[in-house]
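Methods, example record. To illustrate the input and output format used throughout this study, we show the complete record for Cytochrome bc1 complex Rieske iron-sulfur subunit. The sequence lines were provided to the predictor; the line carrying C-alpha cells was produced by it.
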Amino acid sequence: MSSQEIPEKNLPAEQAPAHGAVEGADDPFADPGLPAHQPRIQDIDERAAKRSERAVAFMFALSMLATVGFIASFVIFPVDKIVYIFPFGHVSALNFSLGLTLGVALFAIGAGAVHWARTLMSDVEVADERHAIEAEPEVKAKVLADFAAGAEESAFGRRKLVRNTMFGALALVPLSGVVLLRDLGPLPEKKLRSTMWAKGKQLINMNTNEPLRPEDVTVGSLTFAMPEGLEEDAHDFQTQIAKAALMIIRIEPSNIKDKREREWAHEGIVAFSKICTHVGCPISLYEQQTHHVLCPCHQSTFDLSDGARVIFGPAGHALPQLRIGVNSEGNLEALGDFDEPVGPAFWERG
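The corresponding predicted structure is encoded as:
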C-alpha cells in the first residue's frame, strides 16, 4: 500500500529525525570533529619518557646482539650437529640457532620501532582536507613544514640514545643476508677440475665391485667402472661418482679413428667419462655397430671411435678420456686423472 492510500489521520505529524542527527541542526551529518587530545604519561613526565627511551634502546641493542649471534652460529655449530630442544625434539643446532637469532633480530627492531612510535613520537591527530592531485605552491610549502614538524615531534634529534641504537641495529641486520650467501654451499675451489682418478688407481667394475681385467671386456661390450677406494656407503659417494663414473668399451684398434684415443687405450679398451657434457646426465645407451653413445636426457650423441666427439645434440664438447694401462697384477688401472674437467662447461673453466 502506498502512502497515498493511507488515510491522512494515520500519517505521522512529522518524520522522526535520522539516527545521530542533532535536534534543530541544519546538517544531520555534520562533522563532529576530533575528540580532545589526551596527553600520555610520557608527554608530561620526562622520567617516563626516559624509561621508554631506554626500552626502545634495549630493543635495538638486543637486535644487534641477535645479529652477532646469527653470524656466530655459522662458526660455532657444525652443519651435522643434532640437539634435543623441548618441545621441538631433535633438530639441527645450526638451523635452530639461525632461525632463533634472525627472528629475534627482526622482531626486536619492529618492537622497538612500535614502542618508539606509541610512547615518544607525537600522537596528536591532525585532520587535513583533500586537495587536487597537483599541489599548489602553498601546499608544497605546507608539506615541507609538516615534515619538518614531524621530524621535530619524533624527537629524533633529541633522543640520541634511540637514534644511535636504531642506526646500529639497522646497520647490522643486513649482515645476516651477506652471511646467508655463504650458506649456499661450500666454494667449489678446484673440485670441479679434478676427480678421484689418479695414477695407479684400479678400475673397479660397478656391478661386481671387483677389479677389471682386459679379458673381462669383450669387443662391443659396455662396462661401467669407478675408482679403487670409492665405497658406495661413503658419505661423499654421490659427489665423487658424479665426476668419476667411467664407461669402458672395447673397440677393434683398427676402428679407432683418433690417434690420441688409440694411444690412451689398452688393446682397444677405451675409457671415457660417463657424464654428459651438456647438463651432466649419466650416459648409458651404446650402439655397438656404430660405436655411438647416446645421452637419454637430450639425445646428445658421441662417437666413441673418434675421440668421443659430439655428432648430434646440444652437448658442447667431447667426453673426456681417461688414459689406462695394466698393472703388475694384470688389472686395468688409470695412468692419471682426466686431462680436462668432466661434465658440463662452467664459466671459469677456461
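Annotations derived from this record:
Residues 191-334 form a domain with the Rieske Iron-sulfur Protein fold (CATH 2.102.10.10).
The helical segments are 41-44, 46-76, 93-119, 137-153, 160-182, 237-244, 259-264.
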